[in-house]
Amino acid sequence: MSTEGGTRAVVAALLANTGIAITKFIAAAISGSASMLAEAIHSLADSGNQVLLLVGGRRSKKDADSAHPFGYGRERFIYAFLVSIILFSVGGVFSLYEGIHKLSEHEPLKLPWLPLVVLAVSIVLESFSLRTAVRESNHSRTKGQSWVAFIRHAKQPELPIILLEDVAALTGLTFAFAGVGLTILTGDVLWDAIGTIAIGALLVVVAIILGIETKSLLIGEGATAGDLAKIRAAFNGHAKVEAVIHMKTLYLGPDELMVAAKVAVPKATRATEIAKAINEIEASVRAAVPAARVIYIEPDIYVTPGSPSTDAIVVQSSN
Questions:
Q1: Whether this model's pTM surpasses 0.85
Q2: In what order do the strands lie in the sheet with 292-300?
Q3: How does residue 309 score in pLDDT terms, banded at 50, 70 and 90?
Q4: Which is more confident, 184 or 231?
Q5: Neighbour tally for 160: CB within 10 Å
Q6: How far from the centroid of its chain's Cα atoms is residue 162's Cα?
Q7: First to last CA, the chain
């Protein structure tokens, strides 16, 4: 559900931003507004970002092979990281440059009403895109979870990216509208330049936030505290498990979690009983946390500190 919802949000944002970018470029060329040009570059960067997210989602579905035995799920993390770089360089840095350039040039606006009309329409369209992103995110966001926590801990990168992009877009449009509006009221193009610089600074901040979050996913994040508790309960709930000695988890992709655990079993347990228990534990873990698709279980005999060690029987299983 989360993957499909992310795709819907990306497509909605792509359609909105493509149309908005074309309109903004035309309005910027006619009016000479730096704020409008910055917003046009912003929308163009967003459109490119959404294409990258779609490409990443498509590539992540490739089947595992000998070179990549755990599949290509992390492609989505890589493309999400590229999005943050593009948003920073193309969107943020260019807008800052254009705003600083406008400070020195002082070029007057032509047809000043045109940027205001385009910006107003853009605000409406971006609001629809944000509404779609919020609706789809609510399918993945746990009850009571704040939006900040959702963006920080979501394993599906598309939804947080679209949310931040849409919020940044609406904020940037507000800056641009204020800059152009104050320029019209005062006759001073300084306000248009300030609006452009504000847009650039906003995009740089958003890009840094996205970069930090996607970098964490690329390095490798484990299951959330809630999912860890469910997985541990599934292990401890089986009669053949005396204790979970240690356990590690790792997201191989946004929708695929690997679980590796060493568990203590009774000393007299036969190998056939252990194999049966592992299958049952796997089923319980997957029922509790559906994303746990790759599971490795090592049965062992619990040895108290100071006692002679016992060789472990290793049984591995994965789907």
A1: no
A2: 243-253, 256-264, 292-300
A3: very low
A4: 231
A5: 25
A6: 8
A7: 21
